[in-house]
């Protein structure tokens, strides 16, 4: 009902009318300041864990001085969502790195993985990058386990003699058990080649079929209309969009980082990028990545990237090398 003083909820029949608390506008009291810090931190933690972009989180911190101070609490930073940690390579700065450092030190697993990949492959701080990746892997981060496996397979950041296929295969097996499709496919190739695992073609065949089946189911869940594949020109582009939907933001960052560097970075020390366009990994020493055994033109950081790139475009472009020395020159790095 409406009264002269505004809307009033009707009281229960037979009960005395509820007394409304009146706050004088000139009293100077701020009810927000009376809230305990634990409650405000809990609210900020819920916000950071559900933020869909960095701007949503930082806009909340800039709301008032108290939010800005309590937003730096480890509990808030440790629960920040992966989307709230997204950073673009063109926007990379010391403040962005400091924020990710604070999140990683607070125990945020996603921040450890993202910052570890940036340190290892972009900033070439191999020791700190591997340490951050190891911290994420200890928390059973599937992608961090797989990335550490790739590092061990290639001996990245160290001489060629430090390659460790056995440790790489073990890390891949754990990552595959946690649901990483690339790691599952890599384990299959390890069994197929006898690399780090006993040679077992039958088990390798089963794992590779399982990886392809999971990938197919994932595509169907994304409900991509089939008529988009009828046009041959747009097939590769459409497939790239399909594959990129599950690419981690660390890979997106690395692709953008080296894209901004351009050919200058490629000609600086002769290090190649992984030919899978959605990977973003770059060699840490010359001839680190495996080359295609047929054309010897493209190079891959892993067999999983080779399989994905083959499906996306390389199967239509791969041609036998004219000079047999090109293939022989691949040596132990040949795919």
TrEMBL record:
Transmembrane segments: none annotated. InterPro entries: At2g35280_TPR_dom, At5g50450/At1g67340-like, F-box-like_dom_sf, Sel1-like, TPR-like_helical_dom_sf, Znf_MYND. Residues 276-318 form the MYND-type domain. It comes from the Eukaryota. GO terms for molecular function: zinc ion binding. Pfam families: TPR_27, zf-MYND. This is HCP-like superfamily protein with MYND-type zinc finger. It comes from Rhynchospora pubera. The lineage of its organism: Eukaryota, Viridiplantae, Streptophyta, Embryophyta, Tracheophyta.
């Amino acid at each position: 009902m409406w009264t002269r003083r505004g809307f009033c909820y009707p009281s229960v029949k037979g009960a005395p009318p509820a007394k409304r608390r009146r706050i004088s506008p000139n009293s100077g009291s701020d009810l927000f300041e009376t809230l305990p810090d634990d409650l405000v931190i809990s609210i900020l933690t819920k916000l950071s864990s559900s933020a869909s972009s960095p701007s949503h989180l930082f806009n909340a911190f800039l709301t008032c001085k108290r939010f800005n101070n309590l937003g730096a609490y480890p509990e808030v930073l440790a629960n920040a969502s992966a989307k709230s940690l997204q950073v673009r390579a063109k926007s990379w700065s010391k403040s962005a790195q400091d924020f990710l450092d604070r999140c990683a030190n607070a125990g945020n697993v996603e921040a450890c993985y993202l910052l570890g990949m940036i340190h290892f492959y972009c900033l070439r701080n191999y020791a700190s990058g591997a340490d951050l990746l190891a911290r994420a892997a200890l928390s059973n981060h599937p992608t961090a386990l797989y990335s550490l496996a790739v590092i061990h397979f290639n001996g990245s950041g160290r001489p060629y003699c430090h390659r460790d296929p056995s440790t790489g295969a073990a890390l891949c097996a754990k990552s595959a058990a946690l649901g990483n499709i690339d790691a599952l496919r890599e384990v299959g190739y390890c069994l197929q080649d006898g690399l780090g695992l006993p040679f077992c073609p039958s088990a390798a065949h089963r794992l590779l079929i399982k990886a392809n089946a999971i990938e197919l189911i994932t595509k169907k869940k994304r409900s991509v209309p089939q008529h988009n594949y009828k046009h041959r020109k747009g097939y590769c582009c459409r497939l790239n969009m399909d594959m990129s939907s599950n690419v981690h933001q660390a890979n997106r960052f690395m692709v953008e980082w080296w894209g901004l560097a351009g050919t200058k970075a490629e000609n600086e020390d002769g290090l190649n990028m992984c030919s899978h366009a959605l990977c973003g990994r770059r060699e840490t020493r010359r001839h680190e990545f495996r080359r295609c055994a047929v054309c010897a033109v493209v190079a891959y950081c892993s067999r999983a990237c080779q399989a994905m790139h083959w499906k996306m475009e390389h199967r239509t472009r791969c041609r036998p090398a004219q000079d047999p020395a090109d293939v022989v020159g691949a040596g132990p790095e040949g795919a």
